[in-house]
Amino acid sequence: MLRERYSTFLGRSHTYGSVYAYSTDIDRTKMSLQLVLAGIYPPTLTDSGYLELSPIPAYYEPLIVDNILNTENCPRYKKEYKKIKATPAIVSKVSKNKKLFEYIEENTGLNMTVDPILSTYGLYIFLTTQESLNITLPEWATEEVLTKMKPIVELEYQIRSYNTLMKRLNGGHLVQEFIKNMNATRNQTSPKIYVYSGHEINVAAFAKAHNFVEPKIPSFGSAIIVEKLRDSKGKYFVQVRFIIMNN
Protein backbone atom coordinates (compact mmCIF):
# COMPACT_ATOMS: atom_id res chain seq x y z
CA MET A 1 0.00 0.00 0.00
CA LEU A 2 2.83 2.43 0.88
CA ARG A 3 4.71 1.47 -2.27
CA GLU A 4 1.62 2.04 -4.39
CA ARG A 5 0.78 5.40 -2.83
CA TYR A 6 4.27 6.87 -2.70
CA SER A 7 6.05 5.18 -5.63
CA THR A 8 6.72 8.43 -7.49
CA PHE A 9 7.95 10.22 -4.37
CA LEU A 10 10.16 7.36 -3.13
CA GLY A 11 11.60 6.32 -6.47
CA ARG A 12 12.18 2.80 -7.76
CA SER A 13 15.44 2.05 -5.96
CA HIS A 14 16.56 2.65 -2.40
CA THR A 15 19.47 4.93 -1.65
CA TYR A 16 21.22 4.91 1.71
CA GLY A 17 19.61 7.31 4.17
CA SER A 18 16.39 7.80 2.23
CA VAL A 19 14.46 5.76 4.83
CA TYR A 20 14.64 6.06 8.62
CA ALA A 21 13.25 2.97 10.37
CA TYR A 22 12.69 2.59 14.11
CA SER A 23 11.15 -0.19 16.17
CA THR A 24 10.57 -1.12 19.77
CA ASP A 25 13.03 -3.69 21.10
CA ILE A 26 10.62 -6.59 20.62
CA ASP A 27 10.97 -9.34 18.02
CA ARG A 28 7.48 -9.06 16.54
CA THR A 29 7.72 -5.31 15.90
CA LYS A 30 11.19 -5.72 14.42
CA MET A 31 9.89 -8.41 12.05
CA SER A 32 6.86 -6.30 11.12
CA LEU A 33 9.19 -3.41 10.34
CA GLN A 34 11.35 -5.56 8.06
CA LEU A 35 8.25 -6.71 6.17
CA VAL A 36 7.07 -3.11 5.69
CA LEU A 37 10.52 -2.03 4.51
CA ALA A 38 10.63 -4.93 2.04
CA GLY A 39 7.27 -3.75 0.73
CA ILE A 40 8.46 -0.16 0.30
CA TYR A 41 11.50 -1.27 -1.71
CA PRO A 42 10.78 -4.85 -2.82
CA PRO A 43 13.49 -7.12 -4.28
CA THR A 44 13.90 -6.72 -8.02
CA LEU A 45 15.03 -9.17 -10.67
CA THR A 46 18.02 -7.94 -12.67
CA ASP A 47 18.50 -8.51 -16.39
CA SER A 48 21.04 -11.19 -15.46
CA GLY A 49 18.40 -13.08 -13.50
CA TYR A 50 19.72 -12.20 -10.05
CA LEU A 51 17.48 -11.07 -7.20
CA GLU A 52 18.62 -7.64 -6.08
CA LEU A 53 17.83 -6.82 -2.45
CA SER A 54 17.60 -3.40 -0.81
CA PRO A 55 18.51 -3.94 2.85
CA ILE A 56 17.54 -0.98 5.03
CA PRO A 57 19.03 -0.44 8.51
CA ALA A 58 16.57 -0.28 11.40
CA TYR A 59 17.14 1.26 14.81
CA TYR A 60 15.81 0.58 18.29
CA GLU A 61 16.53 1.45 21.90
CA PRO A 62 16.32 -0.89 24.91
CA LEU A 63 12.75 -0.67 26.22
CA ILE A 64 13.88 0.83 29.51
CA VAL A 65 15.20 3.97 27.77
CA ASP A 66 12.77 4.15 24.84
CA ASN A 67 10.63 7.22 25.57
CA ILE A 68 9.19 7.40 22.05
CA LEU A 69 7.28 4.11 21.83
CA ASN A 70 7.49 2.84 25.43
CA THR A 71 6.18 5.61 27.66
CA GLU A 72 4.98 3.22 30.37
CA ASN A 73 8.38 3.43 32.10
CA CYS A 74 7.87 7.11 32.91
CA PRO A 75 7.52 7.44 36.74
CA ARG A 76 5.10 10.35 36.48
CA TYR A 77 2.99 8.51 33.94
CA LYS A 78 2.80 5.47 36.23
CA LYS A 79 1.77 7.68 39.15
CA GLU A 80 -0.99 9.42 37.19
CA TYR A 81 -2.19 6.12 35.73
CA LYS A 82 -2.60 4.57 39.19
CA LYS A 83 -4.28 7.72 40.50
CA ILE A 84 -6.89 7.66 37.73
CA LYS A 85 -7.57 3.96 38.28
CA ALA A 86 -8.42 4.79 41.90
CA THR A 87 -10.91 7.59 41.13
CA PRO A 88 -14.58 7.01 42.09
CA ALA A 89 -15.66 7.11 38.42
CA ILE A 90 -13.35 4.23 37.47
CA VAL A 91 -13.97 2.24 40.65
CA SER A 92 -17.71 2.49 39.95
CA LYS A 93 -17.25 1.04 36.46
CA VAL A 94 -15.23 -1.83 37.91
CA SER A 95 -18.06 -2.59 40.35
CA LYS A 96 -20.65 -2.60 37.56
CA ASN A 97 -18.67 -5.27 35.70
CA LYS A 98 -18.00 -7.49 38.70
CA LYS A 99 -19.88 -10.49 37.25
CA LEU A 100 -17.90 -10.31 34.00
CA PHE A 101 -14.59 -10.21 35.90
CA GLU A 102 -15.63 -13.17 38.05
CA TYR A 103 -16.57 -15.10 34.91
CA ILE A 104 -13.18 -14.38 33.32
CA GLU A 105 -11.29 -15.39 36.47
CA GLU A 106 -13.28 -18.61 36.77
CA ASN A 107 -12.52 -19.63 33.17
CA THR A 108 -8.93 -18.40 32.81
CA GLY A 109 -7.42 -18.45 36.28
CA LEU A 110 -6.40 -14.80 35.89
CA ASN A 111 -6.27 -12.69 39.04
CA MET A 112 -9.03 -10.17 38.38
CA THR A 113 -8.79 -8.36 41.72
CA VAL A 114 -5.58 -6.33 41.32
CA ASP A 115 -6.41 -4.50 38.07
CA PRO A 116 -9.39 -6.10 36.32
CA ILE A 117 -9.50 -3.44 33.59
CA LEU A 118 -5.90 -4.04 32.52
CA SER A 119 -6.33 -7.82 32.78
CA THR A 120 -9.44 -7.67 30.57
CA TYR A 121 -7.57 -5.50 28.08
CA GLY A 122 -4.67 -7.97 27.82
CA LEU A 123 -7.00 -10.94 27.47
CA TYR A 124 -9.12 -9.22 24.82
CA ILE A 125 -6.05 -8.40 22.72
CA PHE A 126 -4.90 -12.02 23.02
CA LEU A 127 -8.30 -13.45 22.03
CA THR A 128 -8.92 -11.09 19.12
CA THR A 129 -5.39 -11.72 17.82
CA GLN A 130 -6.06 -15.46 17.86
CA GLU A 131 -9.41 -14.86 16.18
CA SER A 132 -7.72 -12.87 13.40
CA LEU A 133 -5.45 -15.87 12.77
CA ASN A 134 -8.49 -18.18 12.49
CA ILE A 135 -7.57 -19.98 15.71
CA THR A 136 -10.62 -21.43 17.45
CA LEU A 137 -11.31 -19.65 20.73
CA PRO A 138 -12.14 -21.54 23.93
CA GLU A 139 -15.83 -22.32 24.46
CA TRP A 140 -16.24 -19.76 27.23
CA ALA A 141 -15.00 -16.90 24.97
CA THR A 142 -18.27 -16.43 23.11
CA GLU A 143 -19.15 -13.45 20.93
CA GLU A 144 -21.37 -12.22 23.76
CA VAL A 145 -18.46 -12.29 26.21
CA LEU A 146 -16.16 -10.46 23.78
CA THR A 147 -18.86 -7.85 23.26
CA LYS A 148 -19.06 -7.30 27.03
CA MET A 149 -15.26 -7.04 27.26
CA LYS A 150 -15.01 -4.42 24.51
CA PRO A 151 -16.17 -1.37 26.57
CA ILE A 152 -13.65 -2.32 29.28
CA VAL A 153 -10.87 -2.34 26.68
CA GLU A 154 -12.01 1.04 25.37
CA LEU A 155 -11.94 2.30 28.96
CA GLU A 156 -8.32 1.14 29.39
CA TYR A 157 -7.32 3.18 26.33
CA GLN A 158 -9.24 6.18 27.70
CA ILE A 159 -7.48 5.91 31.06
CA ARG A 160 -4.06 5.88 29.39
CA SER A 161 -4.85 9.33 27.91
CA TYR A 162 -7.42 10.43 30.47
CA ASN A 163 -6.54 14.13 30.67
CA THR A 164 -4.18 16.67 29.11
CA LEU A 165 -1.23 15.59 31.27
CA MET A 166 -1.74 11.92 30.43
CA LYS A 167 -2.06 12.71 26.72
CA ARG A 168 1.27 14.53 26.86
CA LEU A 169 3.02 11.78 28.79
CA ASN A 170 1.50 8.95 26.75
CA GLY A 171 1.58 10.29 23.19
CA GLY A 172 3.50 13.55 23.45
CA HIS A 173 6.97 12.13 22.76
CA LEU A 174 5.73 10.43 19.58
CA VAL A 175 4.01 13.61 18.39
CA GLN A 176 7.17 15.58 19.18
CA GLU A 177 9.22 13.08 17.15
CA PHE A 178 6.95 13.55 14.15
CA ILE A 179 7.16 17.34 14.43
CA LYS A 180 10.96 17.16 14.67
CA ASN A 181 11.08 15.06 11.50
CA MET A 182 8.84 17.47 9.60
CA ASN A 183 10.85 20.50 10.72
CA ALA A 184 14.20 18.95 9.79
CA THR A 185 16.02 20.80 7.03
CA ARG A 186 15.57 18.96 3.76
CA ASN A 187 18.73 18.09 1.87
CA GLN A 188 19.89 15.34 -0.45
CA THR A 189 20.70 12.98 2.42
CA SER A 190 17.53 13.57 4.47
CA PRO A 191 15.12 10.62 4.80
CA LYS A 192 12.15 10.73 2.47
CA ILE A 193 10.11 8.58 4.81
CA TYR A 194 10.22 7.77 8.53
CA VAL A 195 8.80 4.39 9.53
CA TYR A 196 8.04 3.49 13.17
CA SER A 197 7.00 0.00 14.20
CA GLY A 198 5.24 -0.04 17.56
CA HIS A 199 2.09 -1.33 19.19
CA GLU A 200 -1.64 -0.72 19.33
CA ILE A 201 -1.11 1.48 22.39
CA ASN A 202 1.09 3.82 20.31
CA VAL A 203 -1.61 4.19 17.65
CA ALA A 204 -4.18 4.96 20.36
CA ALA A 205 -1.83 7.37 22.18
CA PHE A 206 -1.19 9.37 19.01
CA ALA A 207 -4.91 9.49 18.17
CA LYS A 208 -5.95 10.59 21.66
CA ALA A 209 -3.16 13.19 21.83
CA HIS A 210 -4.99 14.87 18.93
CA ASN A 211 -8.45 14.23 20.42
CA PHE A 212 -9.41 11.94 17.53
CA VAL A 213 -12.47 9.82 18.25
CA GLU A 214 -11.21 6.82 16.28
CA PRO A 215 -9.76 4.29 16.52
CA LYS A 216 -11.25 3.35 19.89
CA ILE A 217 -9.50 -0.04 19.79
CA PRO A 218 -6.67 -0.19 17.22
CA SER A 219 -6.73 -3.55 15.48
CA PHE A 220 -3.91 -5.80 14.34
CA GLY A 221 -1.86 -4.05 11.63
CA SER A 222 -3.35 -0.59 12.16
CA ALA A 223 -1.15 2.38 11.33
CA ILE A 224 -0.95 6.16 11.23
CA ILE A 225 0.41 8.06 8.24
CA VAL A 226 1.45 11.69 8.73
CA GLU A 227 2.10 13.51 5.47
CA LYS A 228 3.82 16.86 5.08
CA LEU A 229 2.41 18.34 1.87
CA ARG A 230 2.70 21.55 -0.11
CA ASP A 231 -0.17 23.18 -1.98
CA SER A 232 -0.10 24.95 -5.34
CA LYS A 233 0.84 28.22 -3.64
CA GLY A 234 3.86 26.68 -1.93
CA LYS A 235 2.25 26.60 1.51
CA TYR A 236 2.96 23.56 3.67
CA PHE A 237 0.25 21.65 5.52
CA VAL A 238 -0.07 18.34 7.36
CA GLN A 239 -2.49 15.52 6.58
CA VAL A 240 -3.09 12.55 8.87
CA ARG A 241 -4.37 9.21 7.59
CA PHE A 242 -5.34 6.09 9.50
CA ILE A 243 -5.05 2.53 8.26
CA ILE A 244 -7.60 0.52 10.21
CA MET A 245 -7.34 -3.22 9.66
CA ASN A 246 -10.40 -5.43 10.19
CA ASN A 247 -9.68 -8.72 11.93
UniProtKB/TrEMBL annotation:
InterPro entries: His_Pase_clade-2, His_PPase_superfam, Histidine_acid_phosphatase. The keyword Protein biosynthesis does not apply. Its EC number is 3.1.3.2. The keyword Plastid does not apply. Keywords: Disulfide bond, Glycoprotein, Hydrolase, Signal. One of its GO terms (molecular function) is acid phosphatase activity. It catalyses: a phosphate monoester + H2O = an alcohol + phosphate. Gene3D superfamilies: Phosphoglycerate mutase-like. Belongs to the histidine acid phosphatase family. This is acid phosphatase.
